[in-house]
Every structure is written in C-alpha cells, then in structure tokens.
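User: Structure please.
Assistant: Input sequence and predicted structure:
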Amino acid sequence: MNASQRATAGTAARQSRQALAWKCCRGLGAALAALSLIATGAPADARSDSALARKLESIRQLDQRLQNIGWRLSSTNAPFCTKPTQGIGLQLVDVAGYRDPAKVQAAFDLPSSIATYTIADGSPAQAARINDLDPLVQIDGIALDDLPAKDRSDWQRLAQAHDMIRQSLEDNGQVKLLLGGGNAKLVKGVPLCRTRFELGGNNSRAVAEGSRVIIGRKFVGFDYVDEEFATAIAHEMAHNVLFHRNWLDTNGRGRKNIRLTEREADRMIPWLLANAGYDPTAAIRFMEKWGPRHGGWLFRKRTHDGWDERVEFIAGEIEMIESLAEQGLPADWSIHFRREVEP
C-alpha cells in the first residue's frame, strides 16, 4: 500500500464514519473479569455425552486457532521482546477445572485427568509429534496425579502444571514429558515473548492482562480470516510487550493515559504482524470491518481513537515497515518503533 492509497483509505474511513449511525460498543481493550486458565465446564443442560463431546470439541477448536496465531506472533517477535521466556507450544487440560469432571473426562475419552489440549502449529511440541488429548502422566519425573486438586472447578493444578513446564524450560532449555502408554518426550524450548494466550468465557471481549491475552469465545475476530483475527490478538499482545499495565499502574488510569496506550498498541500491530509473516495491511482491513459496528463515532469510548483515526495511525507504521523492508531490514520495533508511552 503506497502513501496515496493509505491517504485514500483514511479519507474513506472518515467519510464512512460521518455517514453511519453508530451503536454503543466496547473497544478492543475493554475490561474483563478474572477468568480461569481454561473454559469452564460443560453446559448444565447437555442432553447427551455426544452433545457434550461436540460442544467441548468446538471450544477446543477455537482455542487451537487462538494458540496457532498467538504462537506465531510470539515466537517470531521474540528477538525484539524484553526478557523473552521459553515455550514449546503445548497447552494442557485438567478435567478438575470443570464443574462436572467425570462427564468431561468421559466426553474427552481420557484415561487420566490431565492431558494435552492444543499443540500450536510450527511449535516444538508439534515437531515432537505430541498429539492433542494425549494423557500426560509426568513432567520431569513428577507424577501429575500426585498434585493436589479439588473435586471440581479447580484451575490451580492446571496452572501448576503449566508453571512446571515453563520453569523447566527456563532452567534447562528443555522439559521431559511422559505421555500415556509410556511415550516419553524430551522437548526443547524456543524463545517467546512473555505473554500467554487464553480462550476466555462465553463473551465477546478481548483484553490484555499484563502477562496474558484473553479472548472471549464470542469475539467477532473468530469470524475473520486468520491475518485479520491476528490484528486483534496483536493489539492485546502489544499492551503486554510494551508493559502498558505497569505504566498505567504508575501514572494513573485516566482517560488520556489509557488513550495513549491504546493508540500505541494500535501502532504496534503491523510490526507484530509483519514479523509473523502476516500482511500488515490486514490491520487496516480489520479496522474497516470491525470499526463501523464496534468502534462507534458518537458513542465510542473516549479512551480510544475513532476507527478511521486508528486506520491512519496504522497506515503510518506500515509506511515505515515498508521503508525498512526496501533496505533489507527487519521490522525491528525494539529499535525503530517510536514510543509515546515510556516504560
């Protein structure tokens, strides 16, 4: 997209905003109540085990898509992130985290309570030929069934298992996993930006929590193609890698400050997309689809710029990224991105 095309896009966006009557909707950075690490349990009125199994699998597929995009964004941008962590692209499930663990275990057809859940595309876990819904017996020789758990709705054991993997990777660069049937795996980690991606509850929200990006199961981005959905995920990820939560804790959460962090997160989107191999202009397409319905004019939140303004800010960053590419330089936002919010 050249400068003339970007200017045209910005003008068209402003004209559309003036022509439409907006609905009052949430911005991308809307507040979200605390969530457990996995989607909570099965619907109480599930009519059969097969219906429950289909419901659980549909939720798992949403999470799989989120993990695929999140992994791609996080692993490719790790060279530019402050204090990257290690990961293998493996997400677990613990039936103890559901309201009816026995039903969920049967629906997933699991012989044990803890299993693999999603394996991110292109990750070391995938390269190690780990499959989804494989029973996970041990992590570094520690039996997971020995970890204490409540009867139901308990997310702490799952958090502990994930922390065990992360700590092993950070300490040793690898983790030993024992799967069902005595299938042992030694998996080496790779650098990741220090943020996790989690599927939230049955809502349409997206939020950055400092170390986590949480996307509700009804978030509109699931209806978009991957590179456009990645725009929303990248926006929330930007809040985390730019340490906006820490800055707001120090400087206050007034409207002006929040708006600064939201604008900076928008500007960061095309940098994260470019490094992940997505088309940075997908961020403009996302805003043009999402904005007229969700980034409303008269009723929009004053903590966010109008969607047409957001298009212009994003277009400006794309111009810089394209200039770097013409010089054979990567989209190194740790050097070339202009900060408005100093950490």
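The first strand starts at residue 85 and ends at 87.
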